[in-house]
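Extended Data, panel c. Modelled sequence:
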Amino acid sequence: MKKNIILLLLVAIYCCTNTVNAQKERAVWSKQQANEWYSAKAWIRGSNFSPSSAINQLEMWQQASFDTATINRELGFAESIGFNSMRVFLHHLAWQQDPKGFIQRMNTYLSISDKHHISTMFVFFDDCWNESYKAGTQPAPKIGVHNSGWLRDPGKLYYDDPALISVLERYVKDVLTNFKHDKRILLWDVYNEPGNSGYGNKSLPLLQKVFSWGRQINPDQPLSSGVWSPDLKELNAFQLANDDVITYHNYSNEVEHAQVIDSLQLYGRPLICTEYMARTRGSRFENIMPLLKQHNVAAFNWGFVSGKTNTIYAWDTPMPNGAEPAIWFHDIFRKDGTPFSSAEIRTIMSLTGKN
């Protein structure tokens, strides 16, 4: 009997401890909280940003290739056309090599961005493009190939090395703890396109974990992960149930994009389009950006300055001779600041109030 009583006490203590721990993980923002946060901001518009000198996230964030001159110049281009926010990808390996230096470089980036009156949405994980990676000098771009050097995070290593999960947890929590009250940060995009690259529901456990880690730290900024494929029903359901504000991707024309907006507005939360604009697929500034502004949907196109990511080339249309396509797939500016299309710049500036 005494053993049974002791066992019951231990179970009770265990349950109470877990209840306390669970209480430390904040709830999803209420719709009211989310909408109040959003209504206090001007219309958010910007781009997915990687400096033209970086082929991927590691080249952007490693100490040896952290290019503040290019970042400053190119964010100046963004400011000049009225952009007020940028979406920027991180990578855990850059943090793992040098946690203190990585945090310092993030702070340096934020200082440069803030100087240009631009807020930042940081992205933690990503299921797109190359499955493996290593620290150090990154490969040269493959001629005429879209995003030939872009990296998944954590990619294949997550499935090969179970111990990696503890590294990823420390990484996410360290970054969030350092910047949880930073007003220069708009939002934390915890996982880009989970389930891409054929992963499907294999990505769900990590998606669940990163939301949980984020809620334990409880930053002032909202947490989100964008829905991007209607086929990934279980992932979509989890994302939409756990997003503080709803983020999504759409590269279709204005008719299909409007249908997506209509369906997502039913959730009663602010909408942020974190990827759009693929000219040859019918998603262009002149037909999508006005639609987003009309519906007060924050707008982040993919691609900013043409550079090592090669995103002027389409996903599925490599150009082995490296010739410039007549119509760029993504991107707005050349490295010297001249635009691909002056007409597009006029459209953007008319919508941002810059002309």
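The beta strands are 45-48, 85-89, 119-126, 185-192, 223-224, 246-249, 271-275, 298-301. This feature is highlighted in the accompanying rendering.
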